[in-house]
């Protein structure tokens, strides 16, 4: 045949679509369950472009010197944080991890997050896909297994566990099962159980969860999920409903959460939509203890490749549109180091979420990987906050940042 070239176009992607059809809209099938996906660093990543800008004169350092009776050091910075009704040793939580095989490190993450006293979110579709109590699968752990692994390591007085619920989770009454199970009675009694309403995810805003499944599994799930055969070779896409929201529906669902589960904390996760600020205000006004904003850089699961670079607002723009005004805003999206975390705190977040970074850390070392990652982040955060003349993570603000001219 004649070999044609297409200057200026992603030729490999075009040929893949001509060859594989709709299956080529997604990452390669052999990467499913073994890789994590989300927005990649782009030259225009505003958060990366920001610089922390320490002042010459630091009255806060003088106040700390007087209080301590000595020159303060970075090790004097306090990172303890209250977020969404939970207390944590630093302003970090583990973002929602769902039902796919890539979350096979979920028990390792639960144990390490629990040991550290870091709040953790268990993502959507775990119970409908993996089972509530036990899945019997080395890669896909049941919802209660993840909860118990966290609780068994959790010290008194810190941490907390949130369980997400999607439309399909609601059909399975996941929150009802969790709320009434004796395994979480300790969390409830100590105020450390929460439920998170998922409105969307940064990697695929406006879409529900997407999972590749086998034909055998598809036959069992067709009455509960939408499924679509992408190829003749057995690639089946399972789609979760993204849910339908208006101002009033959103407000009423949060109020129902508060009324039906009065002892649980109420979190809401928003995708990076253009009206994210308005949605956050409604959530807080309706009684949400915390609002999570997942920027377009966020995500751990499978998503159409075109979404990762072209759909949804960058996290910096989301934070510009949301005004927490003393309320708890949580932010996630390509966070893996303490410097980016401090920038997000200065932009208004109370704490930052680790998704892909947490998975990679636990994959590297299932026993101590997340602990070591957070040790490094805590060191960087203390140094960065101290350099600004601050001595608590929540004292940072937009005046601590410099934006290069565009």
From TrEMBL:
- InterPro entries in alphabetical order: Aldolase_TIM, Glu_synthdom
Q: Give me any GO biological process, just one.
A: glutamate biosynthetic process
What would be one Pfam family of this protein? Glu_synthase
In alphabetical order, the GO MF annotations are: glutamate synthase activity
Q: Where is the Glutamate synthase domain?
A: 195-362
Q: Can you tell which superkingdom this protein's organism belongs to?
A: Bacteria
Similarity annotation: Belongs to the glutamate synthase family.
Q: Under what name is this protein listed?
A: Glutamate synthase
Question: Which species does this protein come from?
Answer: Streptomyces atratus
